[in-house]
Amino acid sequence: MGKRFKTILAVSAVVIIAGCSDINTLEDQALAQVITYDLEETNDGNIGKLKVTASIPLKNRRNDQRVITSISKTSKGARMEFKSQTDLHFVKGQLRTVMFGKSLTKHGYTKYFDTLHRDPQVSPRTNVVIVNGNAAKLAAAKYDNKEATFETIDRFIEKQDMESILPNIDIFQFMRDYYEEGIDPVAPVLIERKDFIDSDGVALFRDDNFITQLDPSMTTIFLMLRKKINNGQQNFEYPAPGHKTPEIVALNILHSKRKIKVKETAANGKIHVQITLDVKGSIFEYIGEKTLDTKKNQQILTNKMEKSISKDAERIVAFTQEHNVDSLGIGKYVRNSMTYSDWKKLDWRKEYPNIKVTCSTNLEIRNYGLVD
Fold first, then answer.
1. Where are the domains of the chain?
2. Lowest pLDDT segment from 75-89, 127-141, 155-169
3. CA distance 173 to 192
4. 203 dihedral zone (left: phi>0; alpha: psi -120 to 50; beta)
5. pLDDT at 153 over 80
6. Ordered DSSP codes for 43-80
7. Longest CA pairwise span in the chain (Å)
8. Is the domain covering 227-367 a CATH 3.40.50.720 domain?
9. pLDDT tens per residue across span 132-149
10. Cα–Cα distance between 78 and 35 in angstroms, integer?
11. Residues 6 or more apart from 242 whose CB is under 8 A from it?
């Protein structure tokens, strides 16, 4: 019995010591939560050095963070400088978000993504964000006294994605869209306001460069064109004749699914693509002269919203064609509609701005408010 007790005691001691060792190791680590990349501003208009910052949680203050900064020619050089700025072991295993200043993405970004993608410490599920302005400044500011800024950023991205306001893009998805034929990558754009973080649309990329960005008012329709969504809101306003109150409608989107069909090449040689949006929703708010207690008025309103969604969808497609960015992945459907040899003969980058794309919407309203 005594030997058995001694054995149990010895095993327990080993477990306790191992546990203490893990705790000490964790306390000795600087766990980067957000890393930002910017280009330093220069007075002569030339491209400046790379400015990299990292947000690290403070041990004894959960609602605060420490920001360390490095200026170097390469991201690897910046990481080496990080190690000299803290007595802790700098690690990226808990990295939540990587943010790029928009000015940097105009001069090529894949070398930074490639470094992150190859780093075994960095999760491929790390969020990718573009900042309209200085990414380091946004990450270092204080927006909420109850939490650290890296938590505010993380929570904001999650909320925008849940409400279908901005896409939630991680490193894996971004790099997959970069390398895959027939689609170009996109990323959410954030901007720093006076005392809060705000959404600023969607960044559209081609090859190794930021090309343009989509206005925030169009991002929900853009997401409906790009993928299936299960939550969102779209507002409509229709002018009334005379001096009557305009008709204002808030549509709560419960479900939206896209269908893309590549039709036969038209007589003029152009590819024709048909995009259909099947949308289910409910009327969240209605202001207008009509009453929605009759099937006739309900159908009139539904038809108006269908036309508005289709029109906005075609505007978005035309915008991507104007800037020659296949952000919706239409090229993947064109590629799958033909043989591999025909696809290889097709110069999709040259072809995309000239294809014919028509959009239609099937809208099913589950309820129209109090009238139901």
1. 29-214, 227-367
2. 75-89
3. 25
4. beta
5. yes
6. TTSS---EEEEEEEE-SS-TT-EEEEEEEESSHHHHHH
7. 98
8. no
9. 999 999 998 888 878 888
10. 11
11. none
